[in-house]
Amino acid sequence: MHPSERLFLPASVVSFGTLLINTSQYGLPKAGLWLGRAVTVLFWIDAALAVLSSSGIYLLMWSTKSFTVETMTPIWNFPIYPLLIIGPHAAIICKSLSPSVALDIIIGGFTLQGIGFLVAFMIYASFICRLMTQKLPQASARPGMFVSVGPSGFTVAAVLGMADALPRSVPPDFMGDGPLAAMILKIVANSACLWIWGLAMWFFFVSVGAHWSCARQDEHLAFDMTWFSFIFPNTALITATFAVGKAFQSKAIQIVGCVMTVLLVIAWFVVFGMMIRAIVRKQTLWPQKGEDRDEGGFTAPEKQPERHLSTLSKMTSNALASIKSNGQ
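-> structure tokens emitted (328 positions)
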């Protein structure tokens, strides 16, 4: 299996989870009870897929190949991303479900979100070690640095969303005093998320600075599919920024989120346009180009003539020879 492309296998689970988030966000407020039951079942299916895909890909990586700090990039975080969107999903659907069901969703979402963030946090340590000992990655790999923004951003949006829904979801006797416990947990969550949001902003500035150095040195940054790291992880940062602004009723932070949203939309059009340009110029989605190149001992299998075609050819030749001999 290709050493880089296998890191993106969980993207299918991320896409499935994103579709469920959009369905819950736009459908639940206007649909009947049937959709609430459906998204609840789908939430737990998504949670199971996230656990299996993230742990399975890491286990496959650790069983088949050795990795060194010199080759480390934040893309190593990507297999954990299916778990990182479980929390935001839970934060959305728990606001439209009955309190008893919502509490189960919050507990499950908070648990899985914590697993995802803690695994990503440990990988952060390897990334910092790589930067301290090997300097910045080569220019073509630097867009992947933005992947380090995503885990913190998704966690902030998830925890603040679930904390906001907690007061309506807990029973009166929850932890002795339901309303008081919910308020305390909400205050703790809001305070802790400020630190995590700050960590996401710090990685964002570091990633931007790494690309600024490329621009100053006039290095040519050819298009690669990792350019979409400019987009997806930063959506998490923007969502977290709006969540922090709402939690602390800060208009200044919300204005920052609006400005970042406009810049992100512009960046998406630029990246999409560069992708089309690269496809037309055969710089990606082409043999030995982009992600289709041989890497880390992986080589694409050569196309071999199929045995049945060879057998058919021999049979045809024998039949023609037989007909010729009979004719004579």
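The two ends are 56 Å apart (CA to CA).
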